[in-house]
Amino acid sequence: MRNTLLKIAASLAFAFAATSAFAHAQLETSSPPVGGTVSSPSAIRLEFSEGVEPKFTGLTVTGAGGAAALGAPSVEAGHQNVLIVPVAKPLAPGVYTVKWHAVSVDTHHTQGTFEFTVK
C-alpha cells in the first residue's frame, strides 16, 4: 500500500512538473492598454508572462492609413519579458490594431491582436 501511494505521489509530481514546462509567453499587459484611448504613443510596450526572444518577436500596428512605421523590437533592460517597439512617427487620431507574435525563451510561439484608439 505504501509503495502504491509513493508511486502515485511521484507520478503526480512529474505530471505537474511537465505541465509547467509547456508554458507559453502570454500577453499580460500592454501600453497603450488593450481597448484604451491614448495620445499618440512613442512606443508599444508588451509585457508577457515569461521572457521572449526579441529577434523572433514583434508586432505590426495598422490603422485607417495603413501600417505604422515602427523601429526594431527590443526587450527592456533587466526584464526579458517586456518587449518595446518604438513608433517612428506620431499616429493620427483613430483606431489601431496591434497584431503581435512572440517566441518565448523556451521557443514556444504565441500570437494575438488587440486594438487601441489615438485621440
Give me the secondary-structure category: alpha+beta
Distance between the termini: 68 Å
Rg, rounded, reads: 19 Å
The residue fraction in helices comes out at 10-25%
How much is the average pLDDT? Answer: 88
Series of H and E elements? HEEEEEEEEE
Relative strand content? 35-45%
The total strand number stands at 9
Morphology: elongated
What is the count of helical runs?
A: 1
Order of strands across the widest beta sheet?
2-9-8-4-5
Q: Give the biggest sheet.
A: 5 strands, mixed
Residue runs with pLDDT of under 50 for 5 or more positions:
12-21
Characterization of the model:
- The chain has 119 residues and is of the alpha+beta class.
- The chain is 17% helix and 44% strand.
- The chain is built from one helix and nine strands; from the N terminus they run αβββββββββ.
- The chain has one helix at 2-21, and strands at residues 27-31, 37-38, 43-48, 58-63, 66-67, 74-76, 79-86, 94-103, 109-118.
- The strands form two sheets. It has a five-stranded mixed β-sheet with strand order 2-9-8-4-5, with no helix packed on it. The chain has a four-stranded antiparallel β-sheet with strand order 1-3-7-6, with no helix packed on it.
- Strand 6 (74-76) and strand 7 form a beta hairpin.
- It is elongated.
- Residues 12-21 have low confidence and may be disordered.
